């Protein structure tokens, strides 16, 4: 057996561009540190992510979503694993269970279960004195209607355990509940909670020596209600020092209260007239290309290598972990319909400040209404000297691209200018 440290990469990547990019960077940073990496997932996902998986030292077919299966496989594999890690939200429980099973550094499984269960997380934070919207787990329409009668609105309806804004919608009266419930991805119990008024942010960070270290606060842009699909991110968010300190104190205290201590984190929050109100807490890094934005804003940052070094008890790199530049991502939001052509895309790709750009539609495709993250058709990530410059440039580049619709029978041809 090799003396090189071994990392079990539970779940590897999802077959999505940002996840594949994150996994490729994680594998490269592990290789640069002499760490052997073994990737596990179902045969179907391993095949769908073959280009990334090929960069690992080994793979095994394990259903990372089945409770206990990853831990049982690791114990019986005959392999030594010094660290256990996952990018994916749905694999975090398996990581915690597996790390505990093999004696590697990790978050307590009960803490991860609590964080992954949105209502349980809210209850734990509220019990510790953190301001939280009132939430109820509902089994059916009648229970949701009862919640609306007992608490002032508006209200949010959302799945108990989902991602990418799937099934999340705003309701302002009980009559809107049936339509909101129809958007849920399955027939499982769901959450109804009070809507929080205020701009939304996310906090990106990493645990070092068991202590949370915030790397950046990210400002979010979303489509107007009733849906909440994210259409842009800017970091570092332009906030007064007092606000930043308030966020740092609240997020750090909440993470300790919840029992998290290893890996990365992505915490959502609102800034309200009453102060910081915490939203969902995630024991992993944020998606939507935030990893690329962080790497530009903090020169020399190796996000995954930082986690691996901490897990292995190695000295941390002597680089600043504070943003000195700015970055932004903006998604295209053309109106729905069948697409005839796209104009201006090549010019976006050629811009020197573009860190990444992606277009997921072409002539003949149908653009769907923007109800969840999976409906977004493309994006542009840019880096600049400041967050304000990055935000303005991302908006200019997105607005420079024109989506030409196929004309409707009773209308003259025209251009969809992006907003």
TrEMBL record:
<dbReference type="GO" id="GO:0016874">
    <property type="term" value="F:ligase activity"/>
</dbReference>
<dbReference type="GO" id="GO:0046872">
    <property type="term" value="F:metal ion binding"/>
</dbReference>
<dbReference type="Pfam" id="PF18603">
    <property type="entry name" value="LAL_C2"/>
</dbReference>
<dbReference type="GO" id="GO:0005524">
    <property type="term" value="F:ATP binding"/>
</dbReference>
<dbReference type="InterPro" id="IPR011761">
    <property type="entry name" value="ATP-grasp"/>
</dbReference>
<keyword id="KW-0067">ATP-binding</keyword>
<dbReference type="InterPro" id="IPR052032">
    <property type="entry name" value="ATP-dep_AA_Ligase"/>
</dbReference>
<dbReference type="Pfam" id="PF13535">
    <property type="entry name" value="ATP-grasp_4"/>
</dbReference>
<feature type="domain" description="ATP-grasp">
    <location>
        <begin position="122"/>
        <end position="312"/>
    </location>
</feature>
<keyword id="KW-0547">Nucleotide-binding</keyword>
<protein>
    <recommendedName>
        <fullName>ATP-grasp domain-containing protein</fullName>
    </recommendedName>
</protein>
<dbReference type="InterPro" id="IPR040570">
    <property type="entry name" value="LAL_C2"/>
</dbReference>
<keyword id="KW-0436">Ligase</keyword>
